[in-house]
Amino acid sequence: MAELSATLGTASPSAGDYFALLKPRVMSLVVFTGWVGLYLAPGHLNPVLAFTAVLCIAVAAGAAGCINMWYERDIDALMERTRNRPLPAGLIAPSDALGFGIVLAVASVVLMALATNLVAAVLLAMTIGFYVFIYTIWLKRRTPQNIVIGGAAGAFPPMVGWAAVTGDVGIPAIALFALIFFWTPPHFWALALYRAGDYAKAGVPMLPVVAGKAETKKQILLYTLALWPISVAPTLLGTVSWVYGGSALALSAIFTVCALRVRRDNGDRAAKQMFYFSLAYLFALFVLLVADRALGFSFATGA
């Protein structure tokens, strides 16, 4: 008990400390993309069940983030960006964080199965499992491809939302998965460029640490170019109209310009700007998907 008190200090953890374990900023983007998948899916889901499905996606994302923080508390303590998180700051006991994450993970999957269908629940379980076991435990400390492969975890939510309505995984849902999957590397590598010292100190083999900044900038540019056809895929599949498609091409062009600026910049300014624009880019694409459907420019094919 004395050791635990020394670790945690005198104050009991607050609700805010536990909420911080859920990575709320990451959760918000996951919830939004999951809801868009649900909204675009052909068919109808009772509003109460639709809300429950989105809630399950949110809780599952928080659970995965919580378990991630439990496992990475040692390297979080070494990095300036993460050292004030609840576990390295000694605000919450590691065992409590792990238990909290596991309970939330199980509850979210079970509730999804009861409220919607087994396919959506299995996909939700795969999302949690991929983030925890594949990305956090297996890849992150072993390979500079951690973000490339591990990015699949963040790409599952639109498929989960789609499956909650349809009971299957349609090709348009896979297109949304691909959009997030190919967006993830340039998004995180832009961050890694100006946080390379932090990752090196923590022993995390992010691409700028292992391959150098020049190679990272090249890969960022290649991925932004790959996003051109991928971003417009929902239009090519007939899910939305060319109102979305034209806007997606314009946003992808700006994203590529950001990558070109990063490649020419020897400092951190362009990388920081690209990181923040990448968030706006993905958010804008998913807003445009919803707006295109809401305004009736096109109808889902049901593919």
At a glance:
Helix content is 76%, strand content 0%. With 303 residues, it is mostly helical.
Word description of this protein:
By secondary structure, this protein is mainly α. It has 2 domains: 15-169, Tetracycline Repressor, domain 2 (Orthogonal Bundle); 171-303, Up-down Bundle (Four Helix Bundle (Hemerythrin (Met), subunit A)), CATH 1.20.120. It is built from 17 helices and no strands. It has helices at 2-8, 15-20, 24-40, 47-71, 73-76, 94-115, 118-139, 146-150, 152-155, 157-166, 171-194, 196-202, 207-210, 213-231, 233-236, 242-264, 269-294. Helix 3 runs parallel beside helix 17 (269-294) and helix 4 (47-71) packs parallel to helix 7 (118-139). The longest helix is centred in the last third of the chain and has 26 residues, at 269-294.
